[in-house]
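Form 7-S
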Amino acid sequence: MLCLNLKDEKVFGMGKKVTDILRKANADGILLFSGDPVRGTDPNFLYYSGTKIDNSIFLGTRKESILFTSEMNYGHAKKTSPLPVVLIQRGKEYEKIKGYLKGMRVGIDMDSISANGFIRLKKRLHKKFVHVGDELRRMRGIKDE
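Output:
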């Protein structure tokens, strides 16, 4: 697995915030989705991933943060994202992500995902999810010194 060094000054604050959210939600990882052209970029995705790249998924754990993105956005993501970038093929994105989530209790922002998207996520990842949206928003409101 690719690992983000949480001591990297650009992302250390986000790593600490992700760790705090995971602890409070009793979760091992957080999945955030970039959004879609109709609803726009999810503000939690933008804040925690540090990037605005469509068709992408952010995974944050206590030890690493990763950006999964499509082939179309991969080159741009590699140049602009502060996170390690993993290429996912269209239609196979859940297969790749599933390997990273093995044995994890996963948090998602249920307010930012459609009912259809949630059903698809549950079916493809075979996970139970915990809602972390309120905590994500609360942590976004805490300003770093």
